[in-house]
Design brief:
Strand order of the largest sheet: 1-4-5-3-2-6
Number of domains: 2
Number of strands: 6
Strand content: 15-25%
Order of helices and strands: EHEEHHHHEEHE
Radius of gyration: 20 Å
Largest sheet: 6 strands, mixed
Distance between the termini: 27 Å
Number of helices: 6
């Protein structure tokens, strides 16, 4: 299910101008690659992967389709900052996860761990979360022009994964320019 389409803010006083759009189109025609200026500092890397008709899937970090090994419940609670020491905490955890304190040192249930990966920890879900919190530009109803498409689920009951696609090479180029305009140390590269 398509959640939303977001266009890009283009204007004077920024890297993202009509002149940049023209240069990016020309570069794409010559090279069949997006024009991706490199930010001054890089703290995070978005990877793009060709999804044929779907455009370009964006991931925060390299693509992987499997979660890391599952931690114990206790390790998960500590890493997520979930209180788990008091009787009140134990009741809350039982309500949320169906685990009592005697099970805290067991590995996280495989189904729960895979679902969490799809929804929260996967590189594509992290890219969705990152980009959906950035002012890239207005929501657009039309698929015309460069856009990012934010998705939630794939239309199958129970699927609640999140991902974001750039519609085309120009969309990737404009995304990188907008991130630089915002002073965000995020570099976009082609995934391997």
């Amino acid at each position: 299910m398509l959640q939303s389409r977001r266009g890009f803010l283009i204007g004077a006083g920024s890297l993202l101008t009509m002149a940049f759009v023209s240069d990016a189109r020309s570069f794409i025609l010559r090279t069949s690659q997006p024009l991706l200026p490199v930010p001054v500092q890089v703290a995070q890397t978005l990877h793009w992967y060709d999804s044929d008709e779907e455009g370009y899937l964006l991931t925060l970090g390299p693509w992987t389709d499997e979660p890391p090994p599952a931690p114990t419940w206790r390790e998960l609670f500590v890493s997520d900052g979930i209180a788990h020491r008091t009787e009140s905490d134990a009741k809350e955890i039982w309500s949320d996860h169906g685990i009592w304190p005697e099970g805290y040192d067991e590995l996280v249930d495989e189904e729960y761990w895979w679902d969490r990966f799809e929804i929260k920890d996967s590189p594509w879900a992290e890219a969705h979360r990152l980009l959906s919190n950035i002012d890239l530009g207005p929501d657009r109803k039309s698929a015309r022009g460069p856009v990012l498409e934010f998705h939630e689920g794939d239309g199958h009951p129970g699927d609640s994964s999140f991902w974001v696609n750039a519609k085309d090479e120009l969309s990737l180029s404009l995304l990188q320019a907008r991130l630089i305009d915002l002073g965000m140390p995020i570099k976009i590269v082609e995934g391997a």
